[in-house]
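User: My advisor, Dr. K., asked me to get a structural model of this assembly before our group meeting. I'm new to this, so sorry if the format is off. These are the inputs:
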Amino acid sequence: MTTVEHQLREAGLRVTAGRVALLAALGDAPHSDAGSLHRALLANDAGVSVQSVHNILGDLTAAGILRKIEPANSAALYELRVDDNHHHIVCTSCGAVADVDCVVGHAPCLSPSDTAGFTVASAEVTFWGLCAACQTA
Amino acid sequence: MTTVEHQLREAGLRVTAGRVALLAALGDAPHSDAGSLHRALLANDAGVSVQSVHNILGDLTAAGILRKIEPANSAALYELRVDDNHHHIVCTSCGAVADVDCVVGHAPCLSPSDTAGFTVASAEVTFWGLCAACQTA
DNA sequence: ACCCTTATTTTGAGTCGTTCACGATAACGT
DNA sequence: ACGTTATCGTGAACGACTCAAAATAAGGGT
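Assistant: The format is fine. Below is the predicted structure of the whole assembly, which you can bring to the meeting.
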Protein backbone atom coordinates (compact mmCIF):
# COMPACT_ATOMS: atom_id res chain seq x y z
CA MET A 1 0.00 0.00 0.00
CA THR A 2 1.44 3.31 -1.05
CA THR A 3 1.60 6.44 1.02
CA VAL A 4 -1.15 7.94 -1.07
CA GLU A 5 -3.48 5.06 -0.33
CA HIS A 6 -2.75 5.48 3.36
CA GLN A 7 -3.59 9.15 3.21
CA LEU A 8 -6.90 8.53 1.55
CA ARG A 9 -7.97 5.75 3.91
CA GLU A 10 -6.98 7.71 6.99
CA ALA A 11 -9.24 10.49 5.78
CA GLY A 12 -12.09 7.99 5.44
CA LEU A 13 -12.02 8.19 1.67
CA ARG A 14 -12.08 5.32 -0.76
CA VAL A 15 -9.02 4.65 -2.86
CA THR A 16 -10.03 5.15 -6.46
CA ALA A 17 -7.98 5.24 -9.64
CA GLY A 18 -8.92 8.84 -10.31
CA ARG A 19 -7.82 10.07 -6.90
CA VAL A 20 -4.52 8.23 -7.02
CA ALA A 21 -3.82 9.43 -10.56
CA LEU A 22 -4.70 13.01 -9.69
CA LEU A 23 -2.42 13.03 -6.67
CA ALA A 24 0.38 11.64 -8.83
CA ALA A 25 -0.23 14.30 -11.48
CA LEU A 26 -0.19 17.00 -8.84
CA GLY A 27 3.12 15.67 -7.61
CA ASP A 28 4.55 16.10 -11.08
CA ALA A 29 3.06 19.55 -11.59
CA PRO A 30 2.41 21.46 -8.36
CA HIS A 31 0.13 24.49 -8.45
CA SER A 32 -2.07 23.07 -11.20
CA ASP A 33 -5.63 24.04 -11.98
CA ALA A 34 -8.50 21.67 -12.68
CA GLY A 35 -8.13 21.91 -16.44
CA SER A 36 -4.42 21.12 -16.47
CA LEU A 37 -4.95 18.17 -14.19
CA HIS A 38 -7.74 16.87 -16.37
CA ARG A 39 -5.49 17.03 -19.42
CA ALA A 40 -2.64 15.38 -17.54
CA LEU A 41 -4.88 12.50 -16.51
CA LEU A 42 -6.17 12.01 -20.05
CA ALA A 43 -2.60 11.90 -21.35
CA ASN A 44 -1.87 9.14 -18.84
CA ASP A 45 -4.82 7.00 -19.85
CA ALA A 46 -6.31 7.71 -16.44
CA GLY A 47 -9.31 9.39 -17.96
CA VAL A 48 -11.80 11.03 -15.68
CA SER A 49 -14.43 13.61 -16.51
CA VAL A 50 -13.83 17.28 -15.88
CA GLN A 51 -16.57 17.22 -13.29
CA SER A 52 -14.89 14.34 -11.50
CA VAL A 53 -11.67 16.32 -11.34
CA HIS A 54 -13.61 19.04 -9.58
CA ASN A 55 -15.24 16.48 -7.31
CA ILE A 56 -11.92 14.95 -6.40
CA LEU A 57 -10.25 18.30 -5.83
CA GLY A 58 -13.14 19.39 -3.63
CA ASP A 59 -13.17 16.17 -1.62
CA LEU A 60 -9.41 16.07 -1.10
CA THR A 61 -9.31 19.73 -0.15
CA ALA A 62 -12.10 19.21 2.37
CA ALA A 63 -10.21 16.21 3.75
CA GLY A 64 -7.10 18.30 4.22
CA ILE A 65 -5.05 16.37 1.69
CA LEU A 66 -4.88 19.26 -0.74
CA ARG A 67 -4.63 22.99 -0.36
CA LYS A 68 -6.47 25.31 -2.67
CA ILE A 69 -5.18 28.74 -3.62
CA GLU A 70 -6.87 31.33 -5.77
CA PRO A 71 -4.51 34.00 -7.07
CA ALA A 72 -6.07 36.94 -8.88
CA ASN A 73 -6.49 36.50 -12.65
CA SER A 74 -6.24 32.74 -12.39
CA ALA A 75 -8.33 29.65 -11.93
CA ALA A 76 -8.08 27.89 -8.58
CA LEU A 77 -4.77 26.09 -8.09
CA TYR A 78 -4.08 23.07 -5.92
CA GLU A 79 -0.97 21.82 -4.14
CA LEU A 80 0.08 18.92 -1.97
CA ARG A 81 1.79 20.94 0.77
CA VAL A 82 -0.78 21.38 3.49
CA ASP A 83 1.11 21.01 6.78
CA ASP A 84 3.07 24.24 6.75
CA ASN A 85 1.60 27.67 6.23
CA HIS A 86 3.80 28.77 3.38
CA HIS A 87 3.03 31.53 0.92
CA HIS A 88 3.29 32.03 -2.82
CA ILE A 89 4.95 34.18 -5.42
CA VAL A 90 3.17 34.58 -8.74
CA CYS A 91 4.64 35.78 -12.03
CA THR A 92 2.62 38.73 -13.32
CA SER A 93 3.63 37.87 -16.85
CA CYS A 94 3.17 34.13 -17.28
CA GLY A 95 1.31 33.15 -14.12
CA ALA A 96 3.97 30.75 -12.85
CA VAL A 97 3.70 30.04 -9.14
CA ALA A 98 6.41 29.13 -6.63
CA ASP A 99 6.32 28.41 -2.92
CA VAL A 100 7.74 30.89 -0.46
CA ASP A 101 8.60 29.93 3.08
CA CYS A 102 7.85 32.89 5.26
CA VAL A 103 10.89 33.16 7.50
CA VAL A 104 9.13 35.28 10.07
CA GLY A 105 6.04 33.32 11.01
CA HIS A 106 5.10 35.84 13.66
CA ALA A 107 5.92 38.88 11.59
CA PRO A 108 4.47 42.19 12.70
CA CYS A 109 2.51 42.39 9.51
CA LEU A 110 0.60 39.30 10.50
CA SER A 111 -0.83 41.12 13.51
CA PRO A 112 -2.68 44.04 12.00
CA SER A 113 -3.06 47.09 14.21
CA ASP A 114 -6.72 47.75 13.56
CA THR A 115 -8.84 44.71 12.77
CA ALA A 116 -12.10 46.66 12.46
CA GLY A 117 -13.77 44.35 14.98
CA PHE A 118 -12.74 41.19 13.17
CA THR A 119 -11.11 38.23 14.88
CA VAL A 120 -8.13 37.22 12.78
CA ALA A 121 -7.79 33.51 12.10
CA SER A 122 -5.10 33.42 9.46
CA ALA A 123 -3.02 35.52 7.11
CA GLU A 124 -2.31 34.84 3.49
CA VAL A 125 0.56 36.48 1.66
CA THR A 126 0.92 36.62 -2.11
CA PHE A 127 4.02 38.09 -3.70
CA TRP A 128 3.89 39.39 -7.25
CA GLY A 129 6.86 39.67 -9.56
CA LEU A 130 8.60 38.21 -12.57
CA CYS A 131 9.81 34.63 -12.80
CA ALA A 132 13.33 33.87 -14.03
CA ALA A 133 12.17 33.05 -17.55
CA CYS A 134 10.08 36.22 -17.96
CA GLN A 135 12.91 38.42 -16.66
CA THR A 136 15.15 37.49 -19.57
CA ALA A 137 12.37 37.68 -22.14
CA MET B 1 -16.53 70.99 -10.98
CA THR B 2 -16.39 68.25 -8.43
CA THR B 3 -13.33 66.35 -7.34
CA VAL B 4 -14.54 63.32 -9.21
CA GLU B 5 -14.72 65.25 -12.47
CA HIS B 6 -11.20 66.50 -11.91
CA GLN B 7 -9.93 63.00 -11.33
CA LEU B 8 -11.46 61.74 -14.54
CA ARG B 9 -10.20 64.60 -16.68
CA GLU B 10 -6.71 64.40 -15.27
CA ALA B 11 -6.63 60.77 -16.30
CA GLY B 12 -7.66 61.77 -19.82
CA LEU B 13 -11.09 60.24 -19.43
CA ARG B 14 -14.40 61.79 -20.36
CA VAL B 15 -16.82 62.67 -17.61
CA THR B 16 -19.90 60.55 -18.10
CA ALA B 17 -22.96 60.07 -15.93
CA GLY B 18 -22.19 56.40 -15.49
CA ARG B 19 -18.67 56.96 -14.25
CA VAL B 20 -19.68 59.70 -11.84
CA ALA B 21 -22.58 57.61 -10.50
CA LEU B 22 -20.39 54.55 -10.11
CA LEU B 23 -17.74 56.45 -8.18
CA ALA B 24 -20.46 57.84 -5.92
CA ALA B 25 -21.88 54.37 -5.35
CA LEU B 26 -18.43 53.05 -4.49
CA GLY B 27 -18.06 55.85 -1.99
CA ASP B 28 -21.23 54.70 -0.28
CA ALA B 29 -20.33 51.02 -0.40
CA PRO B 30 -16.59 50.32 -0.53
CA HIS B 31 -15.40 46.86 -1.56
CA SER B 32 -18.30 46.29 -3.95
CA ASP B 33 -18.40 43.91 -6.86
CA ALA B 34 -19.71 44.67 -10.35
CA GLY B 35 -23.14 43.18 -9.66
CA SER B 36 -23.72 45.18 -6.48
CA LEU B 37 -22.66 48.37 -8.18
CA HIS B 38 -24.95 47.68 -11.10
CA ARG B 39 -27.90 47.21 -8.75
CA ALA B 40 -26.96 50.33 -6.80
CA LEU B 41 -26.92 52.40 -9.98
CA LEU B 42 -30.26 51.04 -11.12
CA ALA B 43 -31.78 51.92 -7.75
CA ASN B 44 -30.52 55.49 -8.21
CA ASP B 45 -32.04 55.92 -11.67
CA ALA B 46 -28.50 56.03 -13.03
CA GLY B 47 -29.10 52.96 -15.14
CA VAL B 48 -26.18 51.49 -17.01
CA SER B 49 -25.81 48.05 -18.48
CA VAL B 50 -23.91 45.35 -16.66
CA GLN B 51 -21.32 45.38 -19.41
CA SER B 52 -20.84 49.11 -18.99
CA VAL B 53 -20.21 48.62 -15.31
CA HIS B 54 -17.43 46.23 -16.26
CA ASN B 55 -16.13 48.69 -18.84
CA ILE B 56 -16.11 51.53 -16.35
CA LEU B 57 -14.47 49.46 -13.65
CA GLY B 58 -11.82 48.30 -16.08
CA ASP B 59 -11.12 51.78 -17.41
CA LEU B 60 -10.96 53.41 -13.99
CA THR B 61 -8.76 50.64 -12.64
CA ALA B 62 -6.39 51.02 -15.60
CA ALA B 63 -6.34 54.77 -15.01
CA GLY B 64 -5.36 54.27 -11.39
CA ILE B 65 -8.58 55.73 -9.99
CA LEU B 66 -9.79 52.42 -8.64
CA ARG B 67 -8.08 49.44 -7.09
CA LYS B 68 -9.26 45.93 -7.81
CA ILE B 69 -8.97 43.10 -5.31
CA GLU B 70 -9.91 39.48 -5.82
CA PRO B 71 -10.30 37.55 -2.58
CA ALA B 72 -10.80 33.80 -2.86
CA ASN B 73 -14.43 32.65 -3.15
CA SER B 74 -15.57 36.05 -4.29
CA ALA B 75 -16.11 38.14 -7.38
CA ALA B 76 -13.66 40.97 -7.98
CA LEU B 77 -14.13 43.89 -5.59
CA TYR B 78 -13.25 47.53 -6.16
CA GLU B 79 -12.29 50.37 -3.84
CA LEU B 80 -11.41 54.03 -4.05
CA ARG B 81 -8.26 53.89 -1.93
CA VAL B 82 -5.39 53.59 -4.36
CA ASP B 83 -2.61 55.76 -2.96
CA ASP B 84 -1.61 53.68 0.03
CA ASN B 85 -0.74 50.01 -0.07
CA HIS B 86 -3.13 48.81 2.56
CA HIS B 87 -4.35 45.27 3.00
CA HIS B 88 -7.67 43.58 3.70
CA ILE B 89 -9.42 41.37 6.17
CA VAL B 90 -12.22 39.18 4.90
CA CYS B 91 -14.95 37.48 6.93
CA THR B 92 -14.94 33.75 6.19
CA SER B 93 -18.61 33.58 7.09
CA CYS B 94 -20.34 36.47 5.33
CA GLY B 95 -17.62 37.79 3.03
CA ALA B 96 -17.51 41.27 4.56
CA VAL B 97 -14.29 43.14 3.81
CA ALA B 98 -12.49 45.79 5.82
CA ASP B 99 -9.30 47.74 5.22
CA VAL B 100 -6.22 47.01 7.27
CA ASP B 101 -3.34 49.45 7.48
CA CYS B 102 -0.19 47.42 7.67
CA VAL B 103 1.79 49.12 10.42
CA VAL B 104 5.09 47.68 9.29
CA GLY B 105 5.38 48.56 5.63
CA HIS B 106 8.81 47.00 5.38
CA ALA B 107 7.91 44.02 7.48
CA PRO B 108 10.26 41.03 7.40
CA CYS B 109 7.52 38.93 5.92
CA LEU B 110 7.47 41.15 2.87
CA SER B 111 11.02 40.13 2.04
CA PRO B 112 10.80 36.39 1.47
CA SER B 113 13.99 34.45 2.03
CA ASP B 114 13.89 32.32 -1.07
CA THR B 115 12.21 33.87 -4.08
CA ALA B 116 12.86 30.91 -6.37
CA GLY B 117 14.50 33.16 -8.94
CA PHE B 118 11.62 35.62 -9.02
CA THR B 119 12.04 39.37 -8.70
CA VAL B 120 9.51 40.58 -6.17
CA ALA B 121 7.53 43.65 -7.17
CA SER B 122 4.84 43.76 -4.51
CA ALA B 123 3.27 41.87 -1.66
CA GLU B 124 -0.40 41.41 -0.98
CA VAL B 125 -1.71 40.38 2.42
CA THR B 126 -5.18 39.03 3.09
CA PHE B 127 -6.34 38.30 6.61
CA TRP B 128 -9.15 35.84 7.19
CA GLY B 129 -11.41 35.83 10.23
CA LEU B 130 -14.86 36.61 11.53
CA CYS B 131 -16.46 40.04 11.41
CA ALA B 132 -18.12 41.48 14.48
CA ALA B 133 -21.62 40.50 13.36
CA CYS B 134 -20.69 36.89 12.56
CA GLN B 135 -18.89 36.44 15.88
CA THR B 136 -22.08 36.98 17.86
CA ALA B 137 -24.21 34.90 15.48
C1' DA C 1 -24.16 77.51 -30.63
C1' DC C 2 -23.13 73.97 -33.82
C1' DC C 3 -20.31 70.25 -35.97
C1' DC C 4 -17.10 66.47 -35.99
C1' DT C 5 -14.20 63.37 -34.17
C1' DT C 6 -13.68 59.68 -31.31
C1' DA C 7 -14.30 57.88 -26.66
C1' DT C 8 -17.91 55.56 -24.43
C1' DT C 9 -22.09 52.84 -24.05
C1' DT C 10 -25.20 49.55 -25.54
C1' DT C 11 -26.85 45.24 -27.45
C1' DG C 12 -26.18 40.58 -28.06
C1' DA C 13 -23.57 36.68 -28.20
C1' DG C 14 -20.09 33.81 -26.31
C1' DT C 15 -16.30 32.03 -23.10
C1' DC C 16 -14.35 30.01 -18.97
C1' DG C 17 -14.40 27.87 -14.58
C1' DT C 18 -17.34 25.85 -11.67
C1' DT C 19 -21.59 23.77 -9.56
C1' DC C 20 -25.85 21.03 -9.41
C1' DA C 21 -28.81 16.79 -10.09
C1' DC C 22 -29.29 12.08 -10.74
C1' DG C 23 -28.59 7.63 -12.64
C1' DA C 24 -24.63 4.33 -13.26
C1' DT C 25 -20.59 2.31 -11.41
C1' DA C 26 -17.33 0.41 -8.36
C1' DA C 27 -14.91 0.24 -3.49
C1' DC C 28 -14.67 -2.44 0.40
C1' DG C 29 -16.71 -4.24 4.93
C1' DT C 30 -19.02 -8.41 6.04
C1' DA D 1 -19.31 -13.33 -3.43
C1' DC D 2 -22.68 -9.83 -1.93
C1' DG D 3 -24.80 -5.55 -0.72
C1' DT D 4 -24.32 -0.97 0.83
C1' DT D 5 -23.06 3.39 -0.26
C1' DA D 6 -19.36 6.38 -1.67
C1' DT D 7 -17.85 7.92 -5.97
C1' DC D 8 -18.08 8.82 -10.94
C1' DG D 9 -20.20 10.01 -15.31
C1' DT D 10 -23.55 12.49 -18.03
C1' DG D 11 -25.93 16.49 -19.02
C1' DA D 12 -27.62 20.78 -17.83
C1' DA D 13 -27.00 25.07 -15.77
C1' DC D 14 -24.84 29.05 -13.52
C1' DG D 15 -22.15 33.50 -12.49
C1' DA D 16 -18.64 36.49 -13.69
C1' DC D 17 -16.60 38.25 -17.21
C1' DT D 18 -15.07 39.18 -22.22
C1' DC D 19 -15.62 40.14 -27.08
C1' DA D 20 -17.50 42.54 -31.33
C1' DA D 21 -19.92 45.87 -33.72
C1' DA D 22 -23.48 49.26 -34.11
C1' DA D 23 -25.52 53.40 -31.59
C1' DT D 24 -24.72 57.32 -28.72
C1' DA D 25 -22.77 61.36 -26.64
C1' DA D 26 -18.54 64.14 -24.68
C1' DG D 27 -16.08 68.04 -25.55
C1' DG D 28 -12.53 70.39 -28.67
C1' DG D 29 -12.56 73.32 -32.79
C1' DT D 30 -14.72 76.69 -35.59
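One thing worth pointing out at the meeting: The mean pLDDT of chain A is 90.

User: Perfect, thanks a lot.
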